[in-house]
Amino acid sequence: MDLFDAAATTEDGIPELPNAPLAVRMRPRALDELVGQAHLLLPGSPLRRLVTDSAAPSSVILWGPPGTGKTTIAYLVARTAGRAFVELSAVSAGVKDVRAVIDTARHRLIAGGAQTVLFIDEVHRFSKAQQDTLLPAVENRVVTLIAATTENPHFSVISPLLSRSLLLTLRPLGPDDVATLLERAVADDRGLARVVTLAVEARDHIVRVAGSDARKALTILEAAADAIGAGEVTVEAVEAAVDVAAVRYDRGGDQHYDVTSAFIKSMRGSDVDAALHYLARMVVAGEDPRFIARRIMIAAAEDVGMADPTALATAVAAAQAVAMIGMPEARIILAQAVVHVATAPKSNAGYSAIDAAIADVRAGKAGPVPPHLRDAHYPGAAGVGHGTGYRYAHDDPRGVAPQRHLPEELVGTTYYHPTSHGNERQITARLERIRQILAGE
After folding, report:
1. pLDDT value at position 248?
2. Residue ranges per structural domain of the chain
């Protein structure tokens, strides 16, 4: 347990720790230094009130990925005048520790002392019993709770505690956000104080390796800077510091398009090993997993189609799961979808069919809708022949009624030509008979 008063901290609201890591030294001193969380920083927002107003007693649950600023926000709250601050980690603290903090906070209030802010990191690791011990103190405002979690609090935090707290969701940092933090750390006197410079390629490599984790990015930068002492932090220095080779992959340049093209063509070509290789290159390079998921969905429809209609269902499910889960676990979901699409039988018959139909429409081959297919539900429709002669397919024992559906000038046109691959092998024979019935044969 780490117990200290806000007044005993540095002016930045951070405990004075000798030789603090770069990520600690570079914690924002004010809310406006936070990056990537603009949605929480609007004037009058609950977070601003909590940080700037010592009378704001709201307990808060901070939910977000690692390295997005949860601990920083807790320390900013600790800076507020007139508050005592206690930090517990749910990894090591137990019920006894929680009760001790609450008892001290209660005695402090009775003696006319300051409100206590209790920061619990990784609160999702607390058991239900441990979380239950917090309820009376939170409800009676003996402590102001700030709980941080990387897990969905609707599943990991008990409902009574959740209902008594304000839930603030922190968003993953984007590449530009992490790059901004790295450049700030190089220039700031609290950080590396311009002792080193950071090559653009090295910065981009750190961003890719760290993903959306600011703490990880700053730790990598510090390791690379310590290794060279002074001068320029290069890609080679970063590679040596983290033992991860830099992937030559520019998300806005040729490598992005080349690797993406190879990825798609490998799935189309049924080379599952090559498809997984290019998937790995995109994942390691920090490509947006949502972009990858979209490409898999397109491939499932364009290159697999009705040869295996379940491929698209897999791809769509993967895209939804990726959006819910995020990296790094999303790589497993993407891989499953890639394996399905790459190993599935292939057919672009649906893709070719819609393009052929669109070409005819653009060429003016549209023609009037046959009268028997027109809307017959409004008054007077029957008087102009709408719906007259329409045959209801379900009335025919075959489930298909002989009648014309295409405009007259397109009678006999076929757009969809199923292959003999996979599921389409069965469609071919069935479709031939359907077309014969429709033609009245």
Report:
1. 56
2. 2-169, 175-242, 254-343, 351-438
